[in-house]
Amino acid sequence: MPQEVFVSYSQADRETALALVSYLEAHGFGCWVAPRDVAPSSDWAAEIIAAIAAARVMVLVFSASANSSPQVRREVERAVHRDVAVLPVRIEDVLPSQSLEYFLSSQHWLDAFPPPMEPHFARLGTYLKTLLAGAPPPAVAPGGPSPADSAAHKVLPDAATLHRLETQLALYIGPFARHVVSRAAARGASLEALIAELSTEIESEHERRKFINACRRTGGG
């Protein structure tokens, strides 16, 4: 069965997320969820990126814990950049933080509280059937150059520069940085635009400025 539904969640909500997956799979939906579907000895981040790219919809189990999770934010950002529909399912009465609101402000929300969860899961299943019946396949990630960033003025980063960017970003987001840099660089952005895009991976404005300045000092822009 194609794994068209990627389920994103915070570890604190693991029990609810797995119950949701069990319900959806029992009703004919193919789901991808970590860590169950991460192959043994594989690169965790690469598996997640590939699964998001292959999905047609991301179901986000949304709670206060998910709201503060950098990993959840990165997964949502990847889905949005890949034009994968994101369906937040709120299991607590909380609103998204600024970093998530940017990606979720235009999304349809489904409230899944108070318990029991079964009626909420049933509503989710009905919505997903409609969405998947009419949803277009995922589009290629955006990222073509803007008119102001023409080939005549674009300075593309070389491999050494990309490695320096990866090293700097890894200080803030860990090993996921390698895949973030690789994906972003593949879209052919200019060096300055690439640094700016990578900086959005960092939650704190102060830390973002530190990252940008460090990249420029080491020859990355």
Task: Give a verbal description of the structure.
This protein is an alpha/beta fold and 221 residues long. The chain has 2 domains: 5-134, Rossmann fold (3-Layer(aba) Sandwich), CATH 3.40.50; 147-217, no CATH class. 51% of the residues lie in helices and 9% in strands. The protein has 10 helices and 5 strands. It has helices spanning 14-26, 44-54, 64-67, 70-81, 98-104, 118-134, 159-173, 176-186, 191-199, 205-217, and strands at residues 5-8, 31-32, 57-62, 85-90, 110-111. Strands 2-1-3-4-5 form a 5-stranded parallel beta sheet. β4, α5 (98-104) and β5 (110-111) form a beta-alpha-beta unit. α4 runs parallel beside α5, α7 (159-173) crosses α8 (176-186) and α7 packs antiparallel against α10. Mean pLDDT is 83; it is low at 135-154.
Structure at a glance:
Helices cover 51% and strands 9% of the residues.
Inertia-based shape = elongated
Distance separating the two termini: 45 Å
**Number of structural units classed as domains:** 2
- CATH superfamily of the largest domain, by name, is Toll/interleukin-1 receptor homology (TIR) domain
User: Any low-confidence stretches, pLDDT <50, length ≥5?
Assistant: 135-154
Tags for this entry?
alpha/beta; 5-stranded parallel beta sheet; Rossmann fold
What is the element layout, followed by pairings?
Layout lengths: L4 E4 L5 H13 L4 E2 L11 H11 L2 E6 L1 H4 L2 H12 L3 E6 L7 H7 L5 E2 L6 H17 L24 H15 L2 H11 L4 H9 L5 H13 L4
Parallel strand pairs: 1-2, 1-3, 3-4, 4-5
